[in-house]
Write a structure and sequence with these properties.
This is ATP-dependent DNA helicase II subunit 1. InterPro entries: DNA_bd_Ku70/Ku80 (IPR006164), Ku70 (IPR006165), Ku70_bridge/pillars_dom_sf (IPR027388), KU70_core_dom (IPR047087), Ku_C (IPR005160), Ku_N (IPR005161), SPOC-like_C_dom_sf (IPR016194), vWFA_dom_sf (IPR036465). One of its GO terms (biological process) is double-strand break repair via nonhomologous end joining. Its main location: nucleus. This protein has 15 helices and 15 strands. With about 575 residues, it is of the alpha+beta class. It folds into 4 domains: about 10-205, 3-Layer(aba) Sandwich (Rossmann fold); about 210-235 and about 295-395, Ku70, Chain: A, Domain 2 (Beta Barrel); about 410-490, Ku70, Chain: A, domain 4, CATH 1.10.1600.10; about 520-575. The N and C termini lie far apart (about 100 Å).
């Protein structure tokens, strides 16, 4: 780990320290509850509670802070710091003791953590002998960790561009290393000193949060358990915390309810809610409010099936959920779930379901789009399950009517060619960070680390004009040239075309609007208003005209709503 590969400027060990420092730095801004520790093994100095040889516990489990980040960055820049303080071991050591020490750290420091993980970063593909006793000891220690729901994840770094990390020498013989759901079996190339290892570690920090766990009700009342998770979720900035100025300690806010008339303290049972209905106040309790908001027990109910082609892009208005079976609710759910998934995929069908995600959630109609396990874009593994796409309500959709336009076939062909080539582009949207949050974190980092200026942040959402020109420049130029020829033909008084129709429409519309504005600026006299009132056509007048009329007759206007203005005009006409 300490030897610098040929052609590189930094050792794998320093690369690992830099990546860990970057990982801690992101944790400072993204989570205020995650605890992280650091253990070196194969060291000359021993420091651990179990007194295991050549294992040095640098940090126990604790919240990441600025001092740890600065210390790791300094150690990564200057290799002599590690050698002078800790040093590398020359005598053999027991590799299985590493996991024994890790287990003891978790046992005493993290009994209440929801997720426990161990990241093993190494370029040593043979950390110990491959005899049966060593393999059995290592497997036993890792099995103990797995039984306590502590996952062990390996980050294997190649020794050089030609000397790759050989998984088959040791780690492939320990299946406990490959039990995780997000295990990556590929090694990290040594040529990517920092970026690849850092990215691989940062990808591990996100845990798919479960949005809901509900029973999936099939025809006949048959139920299986399912759970939904977000594959893509918006990243929010860290919440603001309030501190007391003198002590810089976080303060808590407490609200107290008092009666306005007596000043007596109120408890939740003393409170009731009301809804104003005209002059009456409808009073109801919190229990009644919960019953009103409840639409039934949380569940996913199958309504029917449709062809996949019936689902359009316009129907996807919000982030979808990924639905997988949940054996914790009903045993055997995975078997029936996979059978339903396979049959729907073979028949090219999707399921329409009603979803009540939580107790007080509003019912939503969702489409279950099947996805079979495989390899998708960028070599990413596709999981088996359903994409739950929230379908819009009828009020969310509108049908717009467009006037028919004549467009020559040459222009249609040029536009189609451009769009077809542009639609073939594949973009990994997970690589686009929020530039606003990145810039905010950069300024906070600079203040916390005592830096003079913040680090530069990359706004990946800005288009790369040079790449667009190199890739689609010919198609764009062809489309522009066809448009220029088409416009020149229209300017030479050619037969009526779509552009001429558009110009006439705009001109006529503009003249009508001008006439309306002139009419609106003219106040209506009493005689004309009486005629319109007798014909029941006061609603044809605009709000401005009604206002001007009432102002002219010196009527006290009480409301600017059109219905109220018409009522006031009728009252005035009846009074004269």
């Amino acid at each position: 780990m300490h030897q610098v590969p040929d052609g590189q400027s930094i050792s794998p060990f320093n690369t690992a320290l830099s990546s860990i420092a970057a990982y801690l730095q992101t944790k400072v801004f993204e989570s205020n509850s995650d605890t992280i520790g650091l253990v070196f093994y194969g060291t000359n100095t021993t420091q651990n509670a179990m007194h295991a040889k050549s294992i040095y516990v640098k940090y126990d489990l604790d919240l990441p802070d600025i001092n740890r980040i600065l210390e790791l960055k300094h150690m990564a820049k200057d290799s002599s710091v590690f050698e002078s303080q800790i040093g590398s071991a020359t005598d053999p050591y027991n590799y299985s003791d590493v996991y024994w020490v890790a287990l003891s750290i978790f046992s005493k420091s993290a009994p209440r953590l929801a997720r426990k993980r161990i990241f093993v970063i190494t370029n040593q593909d043979l950390p110990t002998s491959t005899d049966a006793l060593s393999l059995a000891a290592t497997r036993s220690r890792i099995s103990e960790l797995e039984s306590m729901y502590i996952s062990v994840e390996l980050f294997a770094i190649d020794k050089s561009d030609t000397d790759f990390f050989a998984l088959n020498l040791f780690y492939n013989q320990i299946p406990e290393f490959w039990l995780g759901d997000d295990v990556d079996l590929t090694t990290i190339p040594s040529s990517d000193n920092f970026s690849e290892l850092c990215n691989r570690i940062l990808l591990k920090k996100f845990k798919q949060s479960i949005v809901f766990r509900v029973p999936f009700t099939l025809p006949g009342g048959f139920r299986i358990g399912v759970k939904g998770t977000y594959l893509v979720k918006a990243k929010n900035g860290q919440s603001v915390k309030h501190l007391e100025h003198s002590t810089m300690k976080q303060v808590d806010f407490q609200s107290i309810l008092t009666c306005m008339t007596t000043g007596q303290l109120m408890i939740p049972d003393d409170l009731k809610l009301c809804y104003s209905f005209e002059t009456e106040k409808v009073v109801f309790t919190n229990e009644e409010k919960c019953n009103i908001k409840s639409f039934g027990e949380p569940q996913l109910v199958l309504v029917g099936f449709m062809d996949v082609s019936d689902l359009k892009a316009k129907h996807n208005l919000q982030a979808s959920v990924f639905i997988t079976p949940d054996e914790k609710q009903y045993s055997g759910s995975s078997s029936l779930f996979s059978h339903l998934l396979k049959q729907m995929s073979n028949r090219n069908k999707l399921a329409i379901c009603k979803l009540i995600a939580r107790v007080n959630s509003v019912p939503r109609m969702i489409a279950l789009l099947p996805q079979i396990q495989g390899v998708g874009f960028f070599g990413k593994e596709l999981l088996s399950g359903f994409h739950g796409i929230y379908l819009p309500f009828g009020d969310d959709l509108r049908v717009r009517k467009y006037a028919p336009r004549f467009v020559p076939p040459e222009l249609v062909d040029a536009a189609s060619e451009l769009l077809n080539h542009a639609s073939n582009a594949t973009i990994d949207f997970s690589l686009f960070n929020n530039p606003v949050i990145d810039r905010h974190n950069a300024y906070v980092e600079a203040l916390a680390l005592g830096q003079d200026c913040p680090r530069e942040t990359l706004d990946a959402t800005m288009p790369d004009e040079q790449e667009i020109h190199d890739t689609y420049g010919d198609f764009i130029q062809n489309f522009k040239s066809v448009c220029q020829v088409y416009n020149s033909q229209c300017n030479d008084n050619e037969p009526t075309t779509g552009i001429d129709i558009a110009k006439r429409t705009v001109t006529s519309t503009g003249s009508k609007q001008a006439k309306r504005s002139k009419l609106a600026s003219k106040p209506m006299d009493v005689q004309n208003v009486e005629i319109l009132a007798s014909q029941g056509k006061l609603s044809t007048l605009s709000v401005l005209q009604l206002n001007q009329f009432l102002t002219t007759v010196k009527w006290d206007i009480t409301s600017n709503r059109k219905a109220d203005l018409i009522s006031q005009v009728m009252t005035y006409l009846q009074s004269i």
